[in-house]
TrEMBL record, chains A, B:
A single GO molecular function term of this UniProt record: transcription cis-regulatory region binding
Keyword tRNA processing: no
InterPro entries linked to this entry: HTH_LacI, LacI/GalR-like_sensor, Lambda_DNA-bd_dom_sf, Peripla_BP_I
Chain ranges of the HTH lacI-type domain: 1-55
Alphabetic keyword roster: DNA-binding, Transcription, Transcription regulation
Gene3D superfamilies: 3.40.50.2300, lambda repressor-like DNA-binding domains (1.10.260.40)
Lineage top rank: taxon: Bacteria
Organism in which the protein naturally occurs: Streptomyces pseudovenezuelae
Pfam families per record: LacI, Peripla_BP_3
Protein name: LacI family transcriptional regulator
Amino acid sequence: MNIGEIARRAGVSRSTVSYALSGKRPVSEDTRRKIQRIVDELGYQPSASARALANGRTSTIGLVFPPAGNHYTGMQLDFIGSVVEAAAAHDYDVLLSPSGVDSDRSFQRLLGERRVDGAILMEIRLEDDRAEHLAALGFPSVAIGRTAHPEDGWYVALDHTALAAACVHHLADLGHRRVAFVNRPEQLLRTGYESAQRGLDGFTKAAAERGLTVRTYCCGDDAAAGQACLERILHDDPATTALVTLNEAALGGLYRGLAHAGRHVPRDFSVTGVVANRWAETVTPQLTAADVPAAEMGRLAVDLLVERLDHSDAPPRQHLLVPPISLRASTGPAGVPQT
Amino acid sequence: MNIGEIARRAGVSRSTVSYALSGKRPVSEDTRRKIQRIVDELGYQPSASARALANGRTSTIGLVFPPAGNHYTGMQLDFIGSVVEAAAAHDYDVLLSPSGVDSDRSFQRLLGERRVDGAILMEIRLEDDRAEHLAALGFPSVAIGRTAHPEDGWYVALDHTALAAACVHHLADLGHRRVAFVNRPEQLLRTGYESAQRGLDGFTKAAAERGLTVRTYCCGDDAAAGQACLERILHDDPATTALVTLNEAALGGLYRGLAHAGRHVPRDFSVTGVVANRWAETVTPQLTAADVPAAEMGRLAVDLLVERLDHSDAPPRQHLLVPPISLRASTGPAGVPQT
DNA sequence: ACTTCCACGCGAACCGGTTCGACAAGCCGG
DNA sequence: CCGGCTTGTCGAACCGGTTCGCGTGGAAGT
């Protein structure tokens, strides 16, 4: 079951078997066929560990994702799935690492023990010690999201600033004047989560530009928090007629809160935001939102990483995506505000 | 940065360094301290590939999950997360393999190239060629779900038969007489998906036992399919007053269909089923359902696999879980059927 | 017939760990 | 004073591949 056994049966040396299989040196057609036949018969496959040791490449990429403390979102799942599939298409396996911080044991294992050739980082923060650490080491990695200093790195990201602004303009165009912003949990915002930060930023700037009256909220990643958040919004300003959210998991709760308050969507109240389309279509009425192309982002991230692995001297490349707003059924013209 | 370098700096042999770090043979306190100091200074970590080659263990487990063709469900995500965390607690990494069938390339890589010490199989079918293949090879694995011949294998599973039956009894106790069953997509049922098959089975038997009039449906894994399915249900038998579903992803669509049809939940129509609690709490009104303990299952699966890896001769162990129905707000007594 | 060249294949070294057998030094009891 | 035992360390072999340099035999060239 090892290469020596194949060599013995074929009556050739181990190196010849290696060359026959890798094609890195010419081998006569006869011996190549003989070797191939034996390999097929025995179902021989070379050991990944031995190969990795010999040529220094593991054919594995690490996917660093946040620990379970945060609830997972549907977007993350689509993302993981597409990364694994795209990696398989390039003959890479995917090793999962549930890492928060750079000092994390699991993260150290990936790098220190050289288990992976490169890494994809999810859930980027504006100041991200993992990203900085990898960059300092020159370790091949691609970030999903932009840090505060993105120019020199490889990344695939959504332009959250532009997306939040697009939502604001959409609502303003419909005549809404008092709009709330429902962000991810406060803890994520404080620790500098890029989507939460840039989204808030884009929302605030665009709202100022359009002269809207706004309030911004942080909201836990679950339905109950969403419902509570909506109650606060209507309590703080009952004249609010629309909201923008980045918080998928709270969406159901927001809807529930609106139903409880007797606000009909979209007649009395408009809802929009940035959400994976699977979620946008699950709620009733379906959410008008900028659809997060999670699967495409996963694929792009793998493509970028593979390119970086193949050409270690290649200059950084980036993809900054701005998906359009899909018009569904949750927004409409502003009516007469209830007071 | 390799063990020879450490040995050189400490003025000892490579084997001494190895023993000092692993503790498999006694090393004098002096030399151990000297070696440890150098290791700490240099931040040395042994190469995973070399270690795996030498001792035949990769410290990695494979997680075989379905390819993206199927939509992922929230349950799967919780599951993956908990597996990764539980594995990390046992000092194992997790390698993802998006495999459907036994002949799959990615699956072959896991086994043939000996990338993993053991595997966890998700999305089990009653006749599962992957599970049989692994069993035939004696390869350490734990299934999430039961095949048709479960007695000799290691698994963690829900008792879908009992859960579906519990839903039926719950509805029957509330006085419902005409009940629909909304299953996973037909293609999954036909290919022998165990949750779809056993759930259908448990539903049918329990309904017969209670003398209910039932209809069973397959439904695509998305909101639009759920809505369409509900329309068919009311079209086929407008007197239907309740449904049981296993289909998380269709749930939002089912609710939407009910709203469109003017059926109020739970006054006019009761909904229950087997669903991860995160989803059950997202819809309005919150779903009375048997909550799938995905995170717990992931943890148990890893525990079982680690036990099997540590004691290769251990007899098979299983966990068959029957979570209780969480009473929320989506079921109520049967009213007068609308005709 | 004698070089020249090329195509093929071989042996050995190497990747970076682990592990086994052996050996030296120190201590003990007889 | 000598044999036996323990403790600590070393050298070498091994895991299963890849890769480099060299040797050989046959065909081609003059």
